[in-house]
Amino acid sequence: MTQQSATRRELTINGRRLSYLDHGPATGRPLLALHGHLSEGASFDDLAVELGTEWRVIAPDQRGHGDSDRADDYTREGYVCDLTALLDHLDLGPVVALGHSLGGINALHLAAARPASVAALVNVEGPVDLPHQDPGPLAFLAGFPYTAPTREALIAACGPVGPMVGPLLRPLPDGTGWRLPFHPQDTMDSERQVHGDHWAQWLASDCPALLINGRASQVLPAEQAAAMASLRPGTALVTLETDHFVQLQDPKGFAQAVREFLATL
After folding, report:
1. Is 161 contained in some domain?
2. Which CATH number belongs to the domain containing residue 187 in this structure?
3. Is the pTM of this model over 0.85?
């Protein structure tokens, strides 16, 4: 498989930086890849390699994540406005919108809001009926610092999550320390607002779609995944032997499912 080189670029939206990775070539068919909470665009580097030169994978660090600036709100409208601004800026024509978890929900909202911009949809573990929880599943972030004087201190302060976020830490611009690739309070706010009913948006678009579900998912029950596929025409369902974090636990199976779906378009 041909190695894909990623170029980091950025777009300014209302004075706020939106950073994104552009996996060439420019002649490839465009695929917009949207990460979940606690993640960033680079989580799709392996997928870009697996897809080869036929596809141009555009993977933004969504607002408040990675190298993108924090935002005033983390509503669906806010996320989708960023994505539409990015698509308008790149002027790629219709794209395949792929997303995991938060990204999957944002992708289906994008398809509903801008159907002419989305040629196909790949929803990876993005539920359409997510009951509100108090405290939410990311409430453990409440005790995390956003910054620390050293990388080691920040990793230690994150406890069991430290090894996962360690490779993603960013140095502060002024050289005084390190920061997380997400702000703990922003992430809890974002996670809280993703809960709710997204059925109307899921059913609003009619482009071809692939739904990927982990058999041991903690987020998308098998019954809901089956209903999502059966009630939305043109939707295929693939179940992999993973939990919610599909592309981390079975990167090859994930890439194969995506490749086979893309081949049908």
Report:
1. no
2. 3.40.50.1820
3. yes
